[in-house]
Amino acid sequence: MKIALVSEALPPSASGQSMVLSRLLGGLDPADYCLISNLNYDAAAPHNAYTQRLPVNYHHLSAPRQITRGSRFGLIHLRHGLNFPLTVAQWGRRIADIVRRERCEAVVACTGEVSLLPAGYLGARLAGVPFFAYVFDHYSYREWANPAARFWARRLEARLLRGAAGVIVPNEILRDDLRRRCGVESEVIHNSFDISDYESAPPPPPSPNGEVKIVYTGDVYEAHYDAFQNLLAALRLLGRDDVRLHLYTSRTPEEMAARGISGPVRIHPHRALAEMPRVQQEADILFLALAFDSPYPDLVKTSATMKLGEFLATRRPVIVHAPPDSFISWYFRTHECGVVVDRRDPELLARKITELLADPELQRRLTERAWGRARADFSIAGARAKFLDVLRRGVRARAPEQEPRP
């Protein structure tokens, strides 16, 4: 079975979605898939590579013809609204052409650029093959800054998902939300990673100055700010000079300070992917956080951060500080594999840090459960097998219905 996968983010771009797709597709026969994007990956500079380019055909959806007049008198949103169906129609026909030429048996379209999901749906319909939706994050909520995109996404979401031969999501909270709002069932495939990098878990070396390291690796932006502000307030309440937050991020100290993230914190440059296991395993505590007050609470609720599986596999204790209805709080609370502080309360957070540092037996129980969950839910082999199973079942179920269109 050969598929056409449609996504804005593809290997080797620098994004979590690109990494997930690289891991899912990297072990497949290159004859079994091709890649389609609105970005031109043939023109990408090699030094920007974040993952390996996959050894298959990359197809570029060129910029569509658009209405360019109509910016005065508040008409710009109307113009954007009209350009959306024009883009979907043009890209849909182009996807159908690629599917026919590549002899694909299915289209998998991912969330990202707002036009790609409906264009993938249309392309599959025109080519007479099953359509699958890979919903990495909320389709209808993620376009919160663009009124026209938000209008079309919310109008089309349920129809697109109900018309899919299969829907894939990265976590159970998003699965349940789509079931409630759109009446669709979806398959959970957690964002996998190479667990072999974490097979050996040496004890963290003692800090040369006796410091207790609370570690976070990754980007820090609107989805995180107040959680880190709470942590730093909690560290001040501890009254201990030996406990410090270590951030490994591409953000600068000046950027972080402007967001109130300063004090008992050391900000390190972002490290290469190959260095992350060691950086994480040298922590005394790993900190996994999402904001309690952000511009997009629905995205925070269903966020399936790439770090979750990695943190589980380090066999270092994890503190989760996130809203109670978020996926990461739900996961760690349900599986009892970390300490969850789901209130915006620095005093409670300080107390939980103190309790965790003082209780080696609690640390042992949490890290053993976490390691078990990493192997059960986040292995690349398991994710790839489930992905292929969803596609095969969907193709078999839809085969009698498909009739290619001219």
How many helical stretches?
Answer: 14
**Lateral arrangement of strands in the main beta sheet:** 3-2-1-4-5-6-7
Question: What does the radius of gyration come to?
Answer: 22 Å
Distance between the termini: 22 Å
Q: Please state the overall shape, judged from the principal axes of the Cα atoms.
A: globular
Structure description:
The protein has 406 residues and is of the alpha/beta class. It has 14 helices and 13 strands. The chain has helices at 16-25, 76-102, 116-127, 147-162, 172-182, 225-238, 253-258, 276-281, 297-302, 307-313, 327-335, 346-357, 360-377, 380-398; strands spanning 3-6, 33-37, 58-60, 106-110, 131-134, 166-169, 187-188, 212-217, 243-249, 265-269, 285-289, 318-321, 339-341. Helix 2 (76-102) crosses helix 3, helix 2 (76-102) runs parallel beside helix 4 and helix 6 packs across helix 12. It is globular and about 65 Å long. The model has no long low-confidence stretch (mean pLDDT 90).
